[in-house]
Design brief:
169 residues, mainly alpha, 74% helix, elongated
């Protein structure tokens, strides 16, 4: 990945947490990322094959609260990567990046919980009869919550119907 991609991810993350953190650490992190890129030989042509890993996924997450959820997962993946890089972890620039990621991670605890909830939902055995019975019991309240919290599709339809009625061309 290019330094711009790393910077984009970092800026996206830091935009969720205010400018102070961003202004105070961003120039140093950019330098450290350049050093890390050299450690990983990430400027070789094979790195570009298959497209980006994270930045493409970020494009469809547009709202700030949504972005925090996906960014919390991306930070978690970076932390896993740093836990598995071995002796390179002893280098100062790697430690600096790792510490910055931990700082960001600590401010994303609520988003981590949301990701965990999503993962647990994905693991539910929907072929289990007891789970199915529970799901049926919760179906109406779930739909009701969805429709009451997000009535925009219903409103848009009403508005377009009202506009058609008013126009008598």
């Amino acid at each position: 990945m290019t330094p711009q991609i790393y910077l984009f991810i970092f800026l996206s993350i830091s935009s969720c947490f205010g400018c102070f953190f961003c202004q105070s650490i961003l120039p140093k992190i950019e330098e450290d990322i350049e050093k890390l890129k050299a450690d990983f030989n990430s400027s070789q042509s094979d790195v570009a094959e298959g497209g980006s890993i994270f930045t493409e996924r970020l494009k469809s997450w547009t709202e700030a609260t949504e972005k925090k959820i996906i960014l919390s997962q991306i930070i978690s993946m970076y932390l896993k990567m740093f836990d598995n890089i071995g002796p390179a972890m002893n280098k100062l620039h790697v430690k600096n990046i790792h510490n910055a990621l931990h700082t960001l991670s600590n401010s994303l605890t609520e988003s981590f919980k949301k990701v965990k909830d999503l993962m647990e939902l994905a693991k539910l055995p929907m072929n289990d009869k007891k789970i199915q019975r529970k799901a049926v019991n919760e179906l109406f309240p779930t739909l009701q919550k969805l429709l009451l919290d997000h009535p925009t599709t219903h409103i848009k339809r009403k508005r377009s119907q009202n506009q058609k009625r008013k126009c008598r061309c």
